[in-house]
Specification:
Layout: H1 2-12, H2 16-29, H3 31-38, E1 48-52, H4 58-66, E2 71-76, H5 79-88, E3 97-101, E4 114-120, H6 129-139, E5 140-150, H7 159-162, H8 171-180, E6 184-191, E7 195-201
Helix pairs in contact: 1-2, 3-4
This protein binds S-adenosylmethionine (SAM).
Length: 203
Amino acid sequence: MGILKNFFTNCAHPKGKMGRIMLSMMNFSHAPLTNWGLNLINFKEGWTMLDIGCGGGATIKRLLKHSKNSKVYGIDISQESVAKSKKNCIDLLDKQVFISQGSAEMLPYESGKFDLVTAVETIYFWPNLPGCFKEVYRVLKPGGRFAVIVEDANKDSVWTNIVEGMTTYSTEQILTMLRDAGFSQTESKNKKPMYNFITGVKA
Ligand SMILES: C[S@@+](CC[C@H](N)C(=O)[O-])C[C@H]1O[C@@H](n2cnc3c(N)ncnc32)[C@H](O)[C@@H]1O
């Protein structure tokens, strides 16, 4: 159980060889959830977008396909995730794709920069989630959207016993935090058994 727990800790903060394996697994295993969630967004050409907790960079590549002539920024707290995302997007790096190491708590971008911010399977690990949501609100343009895409929207999840540092939130809790951060047009959509899309727009 110790080994398994150690391995799954790489979901929260991928590190070293096991972290690299986890990132490759997540690029593959999160594809159906991410594709389902992104297909609910009405993308426009030329957007500037940010993927927080970008992991292995698969969502960055999908965002580029959804909005032509766009720019996509990725940020992740893990050095390993940043390296993997950069490798995955090497052709467009520092031209159309910009990847940094950092936390959702303090985003290194000017206010009002992004048309869309996405967070796929990552909010479980953000400290001070209400504060992070306010930070996302700050970096969005007026009219910009925040899309939270998660498999686990059950506040009593079994995964929190397996993955160190993981906290799960119900859809209602996430919607309330979005509203408290200032978001309007908040709504959630789900597909059984466990795909959840929770969103809000900066007024
Ligand atoms: C379960 S992985 C998901 C990765 C990717 N979004 C995907 O769907 O495959 C969670 C990611 O969130 C990152 N992360 C955790 N806490 C973070 C924080 N405070 N700010 C930014 N990224 C964070 C982790 O380093 C990890 O790469």
